[in-house]
Each structure stands twice: as C-alpha cells, then as structure tokens.
C-alpha cells in the first residue's frame, strides 16, 4: 500500500515512499555534476506516483535493505567520452562496485549532452555482470531531464506489465525500452 509520496532523504537516498507491498524499485545512479542524480530522483518519484514505490541512491550509498526487497533495479550513469567517439558510462570503476543483484529485473538509463552512442550497451554489460536481468535502457538528454525521466518511467511500467502478462501466458519475450537518442 502506498502511504506517502513526500520526498525525504535518508543516508544519501531520496525516498519517494516507504517500500511496502508487492512491486518496488531502487534507482542507483553515478552522477558527476547532478544531472543523472536529478533524473534518478525524478524516475523514482514518477514510479512511486504510479504505484511502484521507489527510492534513488547514489552508487556509493546504496540502501541494501531496500535493494534486497526490490523487484526492479534501475541503474543510471552519465556519458563520458570525446562527444563524437569513445562514449562510455562515466566512472565505470564506481559502477562496477554495484552490489550483486542476481536475478533481479534491471533497467538502465544514461544522461548525455550530444550523443550517448554505445553508453547504454556498456552500462547494460556492467549491470548484467552484477547479476541483473537487463530488460532495456533509455538515454535522457541533459536539457530534458524531466521529460526523459517521465518517458523512461512510463516505458518501464509498460515493460513490467507486458513481462508479467507474458509470464502468465507462458511466453518468454523480453520487451525492449527504446533508446531516446535513436
Ligand atoms: C568529462 C566529460 C565528458 C563528457 N563526454 C560526453 C560525450 O562524449 N558525449 C555526450 O553526449 N556527453 C558527454 N558529456 C556530458 C555529460 O554526459 C552530461 O552533461 C551528463 O548529463 C552529466 O551528468 P552528471 O551531471 O550526472 O554528471 C561529458 C561530460 C563530462 C564532464
């Protein structure tokens, strides 16, 4: 049951609502200057408002209790590179310390300025190596954090619903979130 959608901050994590009930999510972000943090907090807020309680935590202060209870993990990063080549998730050594999330449904997002190129693919690899079952990703332009976060949350909720329906029907198809940059 959703008790509150007020925002509080506990141990570095922004809390949209207490994680109580069936489906919950944790957003874990790596942010240098705040855009990816802001996007993560907006995503957590949108999911919570839509009935999936979620919190957003920086990569170095993950709420392990909330993570262990969550069904869905969302990992976000900024795009690092030379703007038109060499793009990858920012500070990947920090992302590689993501707690193990064996078997949990995972989604990725990145923020970018010009072109994220293969950033989401690299990020998906990092998350998969920590055990996440990556369902899809979405790139959010830094000038449209709110719109991008809203779109990401809507697509994630659609994807979760479709996957549950497929599971009930015995199908194994994984819906893909589209990359906003393409
Ligand atoms: C060192 C550095 C390299 C960057 N390289 C790229 C790049 O190759 N392509 C791109 O689209 N954006 C690039 N950006 C822009 C960031 O990915 C973008 O501003 C992002 O939203 C920053 O997120 P943050 O505020 O959470 O750190 C770069 C930013 C920095 C600081």
Low-confidence stretches: 1-9, 171-176
Q: State the helix count.
A: 5
Largest sheet: 8 strands, mixed
Per DSSP, what share of the residues sits in E-state strands of 2 or more residues? 15-25%
Order of helices and strands: EEEHEHEEHEHEH
User: How many separate domains make up the residues?
Assistant: 1
What ligand molecules are bound, each kind once?
flavin mononucleotide
Tell me the radius of gyration. 15 Å
Q: Can you characterise this structure?
A:
There is one protein chain. This protein has one domain (8-169): Rossmann fold (3-Layer(aba) Sandwich), CATH 3.40.50. It has five helices and eight strands. The protein has helices at residues 35-49, 64-69, 92-95, 119-129, 145-169, and strands at residues 8-10, 13-15, 25-29, 54-58, 72-80, 88-89, 105-112, 133-141. Residues 31-37, 78-83, 87, 111-116, 142 line the site of flavin mononucleotide.
Q: What are the main properties of this structure?
A:
182 residues, alpha/beta, Rossmann fold, eight-stranded mixed sheet, 5 helices, 8 strands, 34% helix, globular, binds flavin mononucleotide
Outline:
With 182 residues, the chain is of the alpha/beta class.
In terms of topology, how is this protein built?
Layout (H helix, E strand, L loop, with lengths): L7 E3 L2 E3 L9 E5 L5 H15 L4 E5 L5 H6 L2 E9 L7 E2 L2 H4 L9 E8 L6 H11 L3 E9 L3 H25 L13
Parallel strand pairs: 3-4, 3-5, 5-7, 7-8
Antiparallel strand pairs: 1-2, 2-4, 5-6
Helix pairs in contact: 1-5
């Amino acid at each position: 049951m959703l008790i509150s959608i007020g925002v509080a901050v506990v141990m570095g994590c922004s809390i949209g609502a207490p994680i109580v009930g069936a489906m919950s999510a944790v957003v874990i972000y790596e942010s240098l200057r705040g855009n990816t943090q802001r996007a993560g907090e907006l995503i957590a807020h949108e999911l919570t408002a839509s009935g999936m309680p979620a919190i957003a935590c920086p990569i170095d202060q993950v709420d392990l209790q909330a993570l262990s209870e969550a069904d869905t993990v969302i990992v976000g990063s900024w795009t690092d590179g030379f703007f038109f080549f060499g793009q990858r998730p920012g500070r990947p050594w920090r992302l590689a310390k993501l707690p193990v999330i064996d078997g949990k449904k995972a989604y990725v997002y990145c923020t970018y300025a010009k072109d994220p190129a293969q950033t989401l693919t690299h990020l998906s690899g990092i998350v998969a190596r920590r055990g996440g079952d990556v369902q899809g990703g979405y790139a959010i332009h830094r000038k449209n954090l709110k719109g991008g976060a809203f779109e990401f949350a809507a697509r994630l909720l659609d994807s979760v619903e479709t996957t549950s329906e497929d599971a009930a029907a015995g199908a194994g198809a994984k819906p893909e979130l589209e990359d906003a940059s393409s």
